[in-house]
Design goal:
It is a single chain. The chain is an alpha+beta fold and 310 residues long. The protein has two domains: 127 residues, no CATH class; 149 residues, Metalloproteases ("zincins"), catalytic domain (Zincin-like), CATH 3.30.2010.10. It contains nine helices and 16 strands. It has a five-stranded mixed β-sheet. The protein has a four-stranded mixed β-sheet with strand order 1-15-16-14, with helices on one face. It has a three-stranded antiparallel β-sheet with strand order 11-12-13, covered by helices on one side. A hairpin with a 2-residue loop joins strand 12 and strand 13. Bound molecules: zinc ion (ZN).
Protein backbone atom coordinates (compact mmCIF):
# COMPACT_ATOMS: atom_id res chain seq x y z
CA UNK A 1 0.00 0.00 0.00
CA UNK A 2 2.64 2.43 1.08
CA UNK A 3 4.63 1.42 -1.95
CA UNK A 4 1.86 2.18 -4.41
CA UNK A 5 1.22 5.56 -2.81
CA UNK A 6 4.86 6.39 -3.23
CA UNK A 7 4.76 5.34 -6.87
CA UNK A 8 1.77 7.57 -7.57
CA UNK A 9 3.41 10.49 -5.81
CA UNK A 10 6.56 9.97 -7.83
CA UNK A 11 4.55 10.01 -11.05
CA UNK A 12 2.84 13.24 -10.11
CA UNK A 13 6.09 15.05 -9.44
CA UNK A 14 7.89 13.39 -12.34
CA UNK A 15 9.11 16.78 -13.50
CA UNK A 16 9.90 18.54 -10.28
CA UNK A 17 11.60 21.89 -10.36
CA UNK A 18 14.12 23.10 -7.87
CA UNK A 19 14.30 26.83 -7.67
CA UNK A 20 16.81 29.16 -6.16
CA UNK A 21 15.96 32.15 -4.15
CA UNK A 22 17.06 35.49 -5.48
CA UNK A 23 16.72 36.66 -1.91
CA UNK A 24 14.96 39.89 -2.60
CA UNK A 25 14.27 42.04 0.39
CA UNK A 26 10.68 40.88 0.54
CA UNK A 27 11.52 37.20 0.74
CA UNK A 28 14.43 37.49 3.04
CA UNK A 29 13.80 35.08 5.85
CA UNK A 30 11.56 32.28 6.87
CA UNK A 31 10.75 30.80 10.24
CA UNK A 32 9.94 27.14 10.37
CA UNK A 33 8.05 25.22 12.98
CA UNK A 34 7.50 21.55 13.49
CA UNK A 35 4.00 20.33 14.15
CA UNK A 36 4.99 18.72 17.45
CA UNK A 37 7.11 21.30 19.19
CA UNK A 38 7.17 24.85 18.01
CA UNK A 39 9.47 25.91 20.85
CA UNK A 40 12.52 24.17 19.53
CA UNK A 41 12.45 26.02 16.30
CA UNK A 42 15.40 27.86 15.05
CA UNK A 43 15.21 30.67 12.59
CA UNK A 44 16.94 29.89 9.39
CA UNK A 45 17.68 31.81 6.31
CA UNK A 46 15.46 31.03 3.39
CA UNK A 47 18.39 29.56 1.44
CA UNK A 48 18.91 26.77 3.92
CA UNK A 49 15.21 26.07 4.09
CA UNK A 50 14.78 25.00 0.48
CA UNK A 51 12.94 21.70 0.86
CA UNK A 52 14.54 18.49 -0.27
CA UNK A 53 11.47 17.59 -2.30
CA UNK A 54 12.72 20.07 -4.83
CA UNK A 55 9.51 22.07 -4.72
CA UNK A 56 9.39 25.45 -3.08
CA UNK A 57 6.28 25.22 -0.95
CA UNK A 58 5.77 28.74 0.27
CA UNK A 59 5.68 30.46 -3.08
CA UNK A 60 4.55 34.02 -2.63
CA UNK A 61 1.57 34.91 -4.75
CA UNK A 62 -0.05 38.31 -4.90
CA UNK A 63 -2.40 38.48 -1.98
CA UNK A 64 -5.85 39.99 -2.10
CA UNK A 65 -7.87 40.94 0.90
CA UNK A 66 -11.16 42.76 0.94
CA UNK A 67 -10.76 43.24 -2.76
CA UNK A 68 -7.58 45.24 -2.31
CA UNK A 69 -4.01 44.21 -2.77
CA UNK A 70 -2.34 42.97 0.39
CA UNK A 71 -0.09 45.99 0.65
CA UNK A 72 -2.62 48.76 0.46
CA UNK A 73 -5.14 46.88 2.59
CA UNK A 74 -2.94 46.53 5.61
CA UNK A 75 -0.66 49.53 5.56
CA UNK A 76 -2.98 52.08 7.08
CA UNK A 77 -4.20 50.18 10.13
CA UNK A 78 -1.87 47.99 12.13
CA UNK A 79 -3.16 47.19 15.58
CA UNK A 80 -0.48 44.58 16.15
CA UNK A 81 2.26 47.20 16.05
CA UNK A 82 0.89 48.49 19.36
CA UNK A 83 1.92 45.42 21.30
CA UNK A 84 -1.20 43.31 20.72
CA UNK A 85 -0.64 39.74 19.58
CA UNK A 86 -0.91 39.04 15.88
CA UNK A 87 -4.45 38.06 14.94
CA UNK A 88 -5.99 36.43 11.89
CA UNK A 89 -6.38 39.85 10.24
CA UNK A 90 -2.68 40.58 10.52
CA UNK A 91 -1.57 37.57 8.55
CA UNK A 92 -2.25 35.69 5.36
CA UNK A 93 -2.77 31.95 5.76
CA UNK A 94 -1.55 29.49 3.19
CA UNK A 95 -2.53 25.83 3.33
CA UNK A 96 0.09 23.49 2.06
CA UNK A 97 -0.51 19.74 2.08
CA UNK A 98 3.16 19.07 1.44
CA UNK A 99 4.46 21.28 4.24
CA UNK A 100 5.54 19.41 7.35
CA UNK A 101 6.05 22.42 9.52
CA UNK A 102 4.52 25.76 10.30
CA UNK A 103 6.29 28.48 8.37
CA UNK A 104 6.08 32.20 9.02
CA UNK A 105 7.55 34.48 6.43
CA UNK A 106 7.25 37.87 4.87
CA UNK A 107 5.96 37.53 1.34
CA UNK A 108 6.84 39.75 -1.57
CA UNK A 109 3.86 41.99 -0.91
CA UNK A 110 5.06 42.72 2.60
CA UNK A 111 2.53 40.51 4.37
CA UNK A 112 3.14 38.04 7.16
CA UNK A 113 2.36 34.74 5.44
CA UNK A 114 1.71 31.66 7.56
CA UNK A 115 1.91 28.22 6.05
CA UNK A 116 -0.36 25.72 7.74
CA UNK A 117 0.83 22.15 7.19
CA UNK A 118 -1.46 19.20 6.68
CA UNK A 119 -3.11 18.40 10.01
CA UNK A 120 -2.23 21.83 11.38
CA UNK A 121 -4.56 24.60 12.52
CA UNK A 122 -4.71 28.34 11.98
CA UNK A 123 -4.73 28.81 15.74
CA UNK A 124 -1.47 26.94 16.17
CA UNK A 125 0.00 28.83 13.21
CA UNK A 126 -0.87 32.11 14.90
CA UNK A 127 0.64 30.94 18.19
CA UNK A 128 3.77 30.05 16.32
CA UNK A 129 3.86 33.45 14.59
CA UNK A 130 3.35 35.20 17.92
CA UNK A 131 6.32 33.41 19.40
CA UNK A 132 8.35 35.30 16.77
CA UNK A 133 6.16 38.40 16.73
CA UNK A 134 8.78 41.10 17.24
CA UNK A 135 11.03 39.64 14.60
CA UNK A 136 8.20 39.28 12.09
CA UNK A 137 7.02 42.86 12.60
CA UNK A 138 10.53 44.14 12.15
CA UNK A 139 11.06 42.12 8.98
CA UNK A 140 7.68 43.23 7.64
CA UNK A 141 8.62 46.84 8.15
CA UNK A 142 11.90 46.36 6.33
CA UNK A 143 10.18 44.50 3.49
CA UNK A 144 7.63 47.27 3.04
CA UNK A 145 10.26 49.96 2.96
CA UNK A 146 12.20 48.00 0.35
CA UNK A 147 8.99 47.46 -1.62
CA UNK A 148 8.21 51.19 -1.68
CA UNK A 149 11.72 51.96 -2.74
CA UNK A 150 11.66 49.39 -5.51
CA UNK A 151 8.32 50.56 -6.83
CA UNK A 152 9.59 54.09 -7.13
CA UNK A 153 12.89 53.09 -8.67
CA UNK A 154 13.32 54.66 -12.05
CA UNK A 155 16.49 54.97 -13.97
CA UNK A 156 17.58 58.18 -15.59
CA UNK A 157 20.67 59.69 -17.22
CA UNK A 158 23.56 59.81 -14.75
CA UNK A 159 22.34 56.80 -12.74
CA UNK A 160 24.57 53.76 -12.44
CA UNK A 161 23.75 50.09 -12.80
CA UNK A 162 25.68 46.87 -12.43
CA UNK A 163 26.65 45.34 -15.76
CA UNK A 164 28.90 42.25 -16.00
CA UNK A 165 30.01 42.95 -12.46
CA UNK A 166 31.03 46.55 -13.09
CA UNK A 167 29.30 49.70 -12.02
CA UNK A 168 28.46 51.61 -15.22
CA UNK A 169 26.94 55.01 -15.78
CA UNK A 170 23.92 55.60 -18.00
CA UNK A 171 24.38 58.43 -20.45
CA UNK A 172 21.84 59.79 -22.85
CA UNK A 173 23.01 61.70 -25.87
CA UNK A 174 21.74 62.48 -29.34
CA UNK A 175 22.64 60.78 -32.56
CA UNK A 176 21.33 62.61 -35.62
CA UNK A 177 18.62 64.07 -33.45
CA UNK A 178 17.58 60.75 -31.93
CA UNK A 179 18.09 60.11 -28.22
CA UNK A 180 20.46 57.24 -27.58
CA UNK A 181 21.37 55.56 -24.30
CA UNK A 182 25.01 54.64 -23.82
CA UNK A 183 26.51 52.40 -21.14
CA UNK A 184 29.61 50.22 -21.20
CA UNK A 185 29.87 48.99 -24.81
CA UNK A 186 26.11 49.20 -25.35
CA UNK A 187 24.08 51.64 -27.37
CA UNK A 188 20.28 51.76 -27.31
CA UNK A 189 18.13 54.10 -29.38
CA UNK A 190 15.31 55.52 -27.33
CA UNK A 191 11.84 56.31 -28.53
CA UNK A 192 11.41 59.25 -26.20
CA UNK A 193 14.07 61.18 -24.32
CA UNK A 194 11.98 61.43 -21.18
CA UNK A 195 11.21 57.74 -20.88
CA UNK A 196 12.17 55.78 -17.80
CA UNK A 197 15.40 54.13 -18.90
CA UNK A 198 14.64 50.93 -16.95
CA UNK A 199 12.29 49.66 -19.67
CA UNK A 200 14.53 49.87 -22.74
CA UNK A 201 17.44 48.71 -20.58
CA UNK A 202 15.62 45.62 -19.43
CA UNK A 203 14.69 44.74 -23.00
CA UNK A 204 18.32 45.03 -24.14
CA UNK A 205 19.78 43.17 -21.17
CA UNK A 206 17.26 40.39 -21.50
CA UNK A 207 18.05 39.97 -25.19
CA UNK A 208 21.73 39.95 -24.34
CA UNK A 209 21.18 37.32 -21.67
CA UNK A 210 19.20 35.13 -24.09
CA UNK A 211 22.02 35.32 -26.57
CA UNK A 212 24.96 34.77 -24.24
CA UNK A 213 23.82 32.59 -21.32
CA UNK A 214 22.56 29.38 -23.00
CA UNK A 215 25.88 28.67 -24.83
CA UNK A 216 27.69 29.04 -21.49
CA UNK A 217 25.35 26.51 -19.88
CA UNK A 218 25.87 23.96 -22.65
CA UNK A 219 29.63 24.46 -22.58
CA UNK A 220 29.80 24.04 -18.80
CA UNK A 221 27.51 21.00 -19.00
CA UNK A 222 29.80 19.28 -21.48
CA UNK A 223 32.83 20.12 -19.33
CA UNK A 224 31.09 18.43 -16.38
CA UNK A 225 29.78 15.58 -18.53
CA UNK A 226 26.12 16.42 -17.93
CA UNK A 227 23.11 16.36 -20.23
CA UNK A 228 21.01 19.51 -20.50
CA UNK A 229 17.88 19.33 -22.66
CA UNK A 230 16.87 22.97 -22.69
CA UNK A 231 17.99 26.35 -21.36
CA UNK A 232 15.58 29.24 -20.90
CA UNK A 233 16.29 32.79 -19.81
CA UNK A 234 13.47 34.33 -17.86
CA UNK A 235 12.37 37.37 -15.91
CA UNK A 236 12.19 35.70 -12.55
CA UNK A 237 11.42 38.09 -9.75
CA UNK A 238 12.69 35.96 -6.92
CA UNK A 239 14.96 33.35 -8.45
CA UNK A 240 18.42 33.21 -9.90
CA UNK A 241 17.59 30.01 -11.62
CA UNK A 242 15.84 26.70 -11.51
CA UNK A 243 16.46 23.18 -12.65
CA UNK A 244 13.90 20.53 -13.52
CA UNK A 245 14.34 16.79 -13.42
CA UNK A 246 13.63 16.74 -17.16
CA UNK A 247 16.93 18.57 -17.68
CA UNK A 248 15.62 22.08 -18.30
CA UNK A 249 17.61 24.89 -16.76
CA UNK A 250 16.11 28.35 -16.41
CA UNK A 251 18.20 31.36 -15.54
CA UNK A 252 17.40 34.92 -14.62
CA UNK A 253 18.37 37.55 -17.22
CA UNK A 254 19.68 39.69 -14.32
CA UNK A 255 22.70 37.44 -14.18
CA UNK A 256 24.20 39.57 -16.98
CA UNK A 257 24.45 42.32 -14.37
CA UNK A 258 26.66 40.12 -12.19
CA UNK A 259 30.34 39.33 -12.71
CA UNK A 260 30.91 36.51 -15.23
CA UNK A 261 32.28 34.33 -12.40
CA UNK A 262 29.04 34.75 -10.42
CA UNK A 263 27.06 33.79 -13.51
CA UNK A 264 29.26 30.72 -13.91
CA UNK A 265 28.61 29.84 -10.27
CA UNK A 266 24.82 29.94 -10.76
CA UNK A 267 25.19 27.81 -13.89
CA UNK A 268 27.35 25.29 -11.98
CA UNK A 269 24.81 25.34 -9.15
CA UNK A 270 21.90 24.47 -11.44
CA UNK A 271 23.94 21.86 -13.30
CA UNK A 272 24.88 20.21 -10.02
CA UNK A 273 21.15 19.75 -9.36
CA UNK A 274 21.12 17.38 -12.33
CA UNK A 275 23.26 15.08 -10.18
CA UNK A 276 21.72 15.91 -6.84
CA UNK A 277 18.21 17.29 -6.64
CA UNK A 278 18.36 18.93 -3.23
CA UNK A 279 20.49 21.26 -1.10
CA UNK A 280 22.00 18.58 1.09
CA UNK A 281 25.65 18.67 2.30
CA UNK A 282 26.41 16.22 -0.52
CA UNK A 283 25.08 18.75 -3.00
CA UNK A 284 27.28 21.56 -1.64
CA UNK A 285 30.34 19.26 -1.75
CA UNK A 286 29.65 18.43 -5.40
CA UNK A 287 29.18 22.09 -6.16
CA UNK A 288 32.45 22.96 -4.49
CA UNK A 289 34.21 20.52 -6.82
CA UNK A 290 32.64 22.15 -9.86
CA UNK A 291 33.10 25.70 -8.55
CA UNK A 292 35.67 25.84 -5.71
CA UNK A 293 35.08 29.48 -4.70
CA UNK A 294 31.31 29.40 -4.97
CA UNK A 295 30.91 31.07 -1.59
CA UNK A 296 32.51 34.28 -2.86
CA UNK A 297 30.09 34.47 -5.78
CA UNK A 298 27.09 33.62 -3.67
CA UNK A 299 28.06 36.38 -1.25
CA UNK A 300 28.48 38.86 -4.11
CA UNK A 301 24.97 38.13 -5.35
CA UNK A 302 23.49 38.26 -1.90
CA UNK A 303 25.13 41.52 -0.90
CA UNK A 304 23.89 43.32 -3.98
CA UNK A 305 20.43 41.79 -4.12
CA UNK A 306 18.66 45.14 -3.97
CA UNK A 307 20.85 46.76 -6.59
CA UNK A 308 20.28 43.83 -8.93
CA UNK A 309 16.53 43.47 -8.53
CA UNK A 310 15.21 46.41 -10.49
ZN1 LIG B 1 19.86 25.01 -5.73
Amino acid sequence: MAMSIRVVAAAVVAVAVIEELLVLATVRRTVHGRLESTEKLAMRTARRSVPTSGVWPEEAYPVFRNGMSGVSAVVSFEPSSNGLPLGADDVVFRRNGRARRYVARIDRDGNIALTVPRGGTRKAALEFANSHRAWLLEEREKARCALDERKSRRLGPGDSIWFRGERVRLEVTKDWGRPVLLFADQRIFLSDEDTDLARPLKARLRALAKETIPPLVFAEASRLGLQVTKVTVRDQKTRWGSCSTSGTISLNWRLVLAPPEALRYVIAHELTHLKRFDHSPVFWRMLEEACPDYRVHEAWLEERQDELSW
